[in-house]
Amino acid sequence: MSSKKKLGFATRQIHEGNLHIPGIAPLATPIFQTSTFIFDSTAQGAKRFAGEEEGYIYTRLGNPNAAQVAQKVADLENGEAGLVAASGIGAITTAIWTLVKAGDHIVADDMLYGCTFAYLKHGISRFGVDVTFVDFSQPGALKSALRENTKVVYFETPCNPNLKIIDIEEVAKQAHEYNKDITVMVDNTFCTPYLQRPLDLGADVVIHSATKYLNGHGDVIAGVIVGKKDFINECNLFGMKDMTGSVIGPFESFLIARGMKTLDIRMKRHCENAMKVAKYLEAHPMVETVYYPGLESHPQHDIAKKQMDGFGGMIAIILKASREKSEELLNAFELCTLAVSLGDAETLVEHPASMTHSTYTEEELLACGLNPAMIRFSIGLEDPEDIIQDIENAFKKVFG
Ligand code: LCS
């Protein structure tokens, strides 16, 4: 639907990639719940396998529902093409396995979602790929870590869970000045393309856990890779087909396409609610620090303003109290729900050190400036007064 390129974000999130089936003409793209597709003849099958004829073969190699989501996300990210995976980790591992081999080197920011960190630190390193972790927000840190054999520069912004902001334009510039062939890969899960478009800022590849805001309804695990057409083809025909097999099911794709119709409205509300909660928390006498990129007190607030169109729905806090008291507070919420994941309609709270980031040792957490007592909020779409009241009640229960 390239004629829709110039249409607005909301129009594209709704219409882009939808399948039009003459005759039946359903409004919603139906669920193609099939593992395989029928060939007219052996000649046609051979042509499709050889890439000489367009058309579906087998759902691990492509399915119309996955293609619909891939096109939607790629279009919104201003990318050439996309590939949907069975999880965010499936997207990350598919993209990285496509790019590296034994003897290669990756530079990654030190603050990552726990399982991304585990894959880079303990997974791929077993196969002869070296990974160096540095703090990309420190001037000179990335440059000093780049090597002749560096193939990938990997980071999140905002980072999970401490909301550190990394200057995408600056990182892409430094990496490409060092070697134009380095693939700069940005995990854009916390923002979605509604708030931030890394490809426009010089990155080469965007990663999503579509489990989060893209789907937005807490009922799917999925991931997306967006980048140049040739790279996405390689991800599909090697990384996905032969290495990870991290294939999304048609029903999950259907749910994401359904959820994405309201992406902009949801993101606006997440941002508004989170700003109100962040301001409330910043004024609370029991709160030592609030990490929210929209607050002027955030150390990289200026970079956030420059590269984001809104500050998102994620907040982290440190209390003026022990880790034990922080855990007590987590158990005292009623409306805010104690669960990992994020980007859902429900406000979720969790304890990174013992949950999402338990793949880091305590020393590793401290080394990247993360206090093990940190509490993380994914602010939902409820009435903000009710979220704040629940937080207020929990504070009263624990601290009187
Ligand atoms: N990237 C980021 C930034 C994430 O937050 C997550 C999951 C992933 C990738 C992996 O995606 P998945 O495979 O789960 O779809 N983050 C989670 C979190 O913070 N709580 O639970 C999962």
Condensed summary:
This protein is an alpha/beta fold. The chain is built from 15 helices and twelve strands.
Helix content: 25-40%
Biggest pleated sheet: 7 strands, mixed
- Highest CATH level, the class of the largest domain: Alpha Beta
Give the tally of β-strands: 12
Number of domains: 2
Characterize the structure shown.
With 400 residues, the chain is of the alpha/beta class. The chain folds into two domains: 253 residues, Type I PLP-dependent aspartate aminotransferase-like (Major domain) (Aspartate Aminotransferase, domain 2, 3-Layer(aba) Sandwich); 137 residues, Alpha-Beta Complex (Aspartate Aminotransferase, domain 1), CATH 3.90.1150. The chain is 39% helix and 14% strand. The chain has a seven-stranded mixed β-sheet, sandwiched between helices. The chain has a five-stranded mixed β-sheet with strand order 8-9-12-11-10. The longest helix has 20 residues. The chain is globular and about 75 Å long. The model has no long low-confidence stretch (mean pLDDT 97). The structure holds ligand LCS. Ligand LCS binds next to helix 4 and helix 5. The site of ligand LCS has 18 residues, from helix 4 and helix 5.
